[in-house]
Amino acid sequence: MMTHRQALEIVARRRADKIVVTTMTSAGIWPELSDTPLDFPYLPSAMGQGPALGLGLALAQERGVIVVNGDGSTLMNLGCLATIAGHPANLFVIIMVNGIYEVTGGQQIAAVDFAAVAAGCGIKRIYAFSSLDQWAAEAEAALSGAGPVVIALKVEARFGQKTPKPRRPMNDQITRLRERLAAPPAHRS
Q1: pTM for the predicted model, two decimal places
Q2: Where in the chain does DSSP place strands (E)?
């Protein structure tokens, strides 16, 4: 099994110039790994809305969007997977599966096979990894090509966590992302 941070370190190395929307625990870890205008920590009071935001961004932009969501957040809006399947876009939904609501008290969640649910919703590209070595070996393939893609990563549960605070106020985050998306794409050599 891998830690949440180890899983995100691989995402940071393989993201290319995709927008990265992080929620809950990931929103607290991600700024230590990346802090660009294309990083958007999304911490609304309603859990589960990250994939919907990511879908909207993916439909509106030519670049891809990665949404890092927890298993608890995904359960709060399980219908998002059917919506994503019905509106194909260059969207990569990473579900961090730890079996608990990590930042709201560590309550156990229902055991769900997110890969099976995604397949049942009609998503064609689905990956599930339970080891760091597997994820490291397949991340480049999983995070490239056309979306939608669902990636379930089994990560260690951490009890006693709190909802992270964003580094910037939401208005500043929105302005920063909007300005970056309005600029011409950066060319990578």
Answers
A1: 0.85
A2: 19-22, 39-41, 65-70, 91-97, 100-101, 107-108, 125-129, 149-154
